[in-house]
Amino acid sequence: MHVPLPEVLVTERTVSSRWDGGLRAVVDAGGFELVVDEPESVDGGTGRGPQPTEVLLASVASCMTLAVAWSARKRDVALAGLNVEVTGTYDGPQFSDLRVTVTAESPTGAELDRLVASAERVCYVTRTLRLGPTITVVAGPAGDLPQG
């Protein structure tokens, strides 16, 4: 049975972030709040949330986790003990390498490899990072900028 991805018809997604003092931001993402911060060791950080780079890695890990689970469900494969770990290697002020490690209690071997290959095709976050989208930054007074 084919189960469509829930986001297939969505053409845009927007999140917003507001400064909350120091080096902390509160992000509104789909009606959920996420506090993003720097560690206390950084001047202005309070350590009350993950760093922005950790949020990026978390996006990769969570998207891959859900994509593997979706692929398993689509193929009627029993899934147990799924874990996805993402490590970013810094090269100056950016990551030069992201390593995604997928493990599971079940399935293993070739079956897990097939699920991961399928997940790679449907994971929006890893597909986006591989594509290297254009990033446009605009700035101006609050309320003065056109939307979109």
UniProtKB/TrEMBL annotation:
Q: Which Gene3D superfamilies match?
A: 3.30.300.20
InterPro entries membership? KH_dom-like_a/b (IPR015946), OsmC/Ohr_fam (IPR003718), OsmC/Ohrsf (IPR036102)
Q: Where is the signal peptide?
A: none
Q: Which domain of life is it from?
A: Bacteria
Recorded hits in PANTHER family, A to Z, give: OSMC-LIKE PROTEIN, PROTEIN INVOLVED IN RIMO-MEDIATED BETA-METHYLTHIOLATION OF RIBOSOMAL PROTEIN S12 YCAO
Name of the featured protein = Osmotically inducible protein OsmC
The organism named in the record is Pseudonocardia hydrocarbonoxydans
